[in-house]
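Sequence in, structure out. First:
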Amino acid sequence: MVASASKCRVCKEPAIIDLPRHNANFCAEHFLELCRRQVVKAIEKFDMLSKDDNILVAVSGGKDSLAVWDILVDLGYQADGLYIGLGIGDYSDVSGEYAKSFASERGLNLITIDLRAEYGYDIPTAAKATRRVPCSACGTSKRHLFDKAALDGGYTVLVTGHNLDDEAAVLFGNTLRWDVEYLSRQLPVLPARNGFPKKVKPLIRLTEREMAAWCIVRGIDYLVDECPMAVGNKHLAYKAALNAIEQQSSGAKASFYLNFLDNMAPLLAGRSAAATDELGTCTSCGAPTTSDLCAFCRTAEKARAHEPVPVELVLSRGRRRR
């Protein structure tokens, strides 16, 4: 991660990582301190959490979600985890094992939901049945189940592991389209409202690389592979474009996103139709919705009526389209 001769900016001991956007190198101890400070800064600035909160962390078995759970516990917060088995072949099996091992080794409580066993469908089948990209069916399913688990479990806050790279990439895509609806809702905190739990993103000041380093230093095993169904997703292309800019101008990514939060997000406050529209109740599950059936129940209804689809079939068709 860093040249062997480099020294930590704080203690002058050998550094383990270089962070060009901070124009500094850090040893393991002071790198962890930096990460903690960045999370605390995000939490305090946006009033994300208090020590009295009952927190539910959405975990996938990947570095970001396990790291944010680890950081919050390390900072003294009470936090349980939630893992959803999406039925994406071996990928889901392996990711679930990483999440369970992390929780078991640290004596933490992990809630698990199996989409196929409990709701009668999986993501490959939902993608085929709805004729939409897999990430759409996945996002719809996860958002609904995250919200439901948080509310049913009496949790006051739902935490996700979205990092600076994730948020900058989403912002980049929304800005390319000047999608005011999405831009006005791209915030690190979404308050509880209309049957939705409070949602927060404590990692917005930390990058993917920094979260990978956190896991290495802390001895956290995580699933390295990207979801196979995300191949070709525009989000990955936006990340690559921003990474290329970052190579030429260190700190550009953080400036782009964090300055949006400071300077543009306040101007867009109240522009979201979703925040102002009156919501009804889903006739099937009772969740807030703008129509008779919520998006989750519509997806589940179509997917349950379809023959199960192997993940390999969806992937092969995706490759042919490209």
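Second:
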Amino acid sequence: MNQPLTSQPTLPRLPAPTHDLEQAKRDLAEHGLCLVADALPPALLARVRDALYRAAAEDRARGWEQKFIGDQEHDNSNQRVWNLLSREPVFIDLVEHPIALELVRHAIGWPALLSNISANITGPGGGEMIMHADQGYMPEPWARTQGINMVWCVNDFTDENGGTRIVPQTHLLNRSPLDSEQGVATVALEAAAGTLVAIDGRIWHRTGNNRTVDQRRAGIFAWYTLPIYLPQENWYLSLNPAVRQFASDTLLDLLGLKAVVFGRVNGASPE
């Protein structure tokens, strides 16, 4: 008697890119992420890409590269570029981008903190990171999302060049999907350069394996959290003073340099 064929479980599809911000909010609730198409117009995308790769080349030339905690120990194909706010003013435009801030307000409310903004450049032949959720350092189970990551696609994200691997809808679990990452099925996030991908902090994911022989793939990650958490980047020490001098009130709020709830000095904002 023939045995029935077994099949792999069908994973939920990732949402399609959209220009409709209300649809993006619905996608974020249902899928734990959303894709906003053409968030960076071509001219701004070109400025961002040029500034990022120039900063990466400078770090490499000066020996300033540092391995990221999420990289595999044996793999040196990723390059992390830190503290983008101090590199070029164009990165401030990403932090304050109206679409990004609207999704931050929708997901976690206001005030919020910018915990970090950095970039990851994945080179050919590797780049795969460990499985994680961006709010994984916060105690489980999570009552709600504690942060949201705004991922700016500097290059096209494809399955072949290591586009982020998503464990779909894990934001609904409020915890790790498994005690071990072995056996966790993932879906490649594929998006055109210039797309903004907002990822709920509870979604489990990892950088994919760049299987190309000649493509670098860069993404910029702006991680916003509730204001009760210590930022990953110590802005008081690392920020270029000119950024603070000319910062908008919104940016001062995001950096914790204008106290809204926490961080007061003798009961008043330290600004």
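Remark: Strands lie at 33-36, 78-81, 113-122, 132-133, 147-153, 165-167, 187-188, 196-200, 204-206, 217-225.
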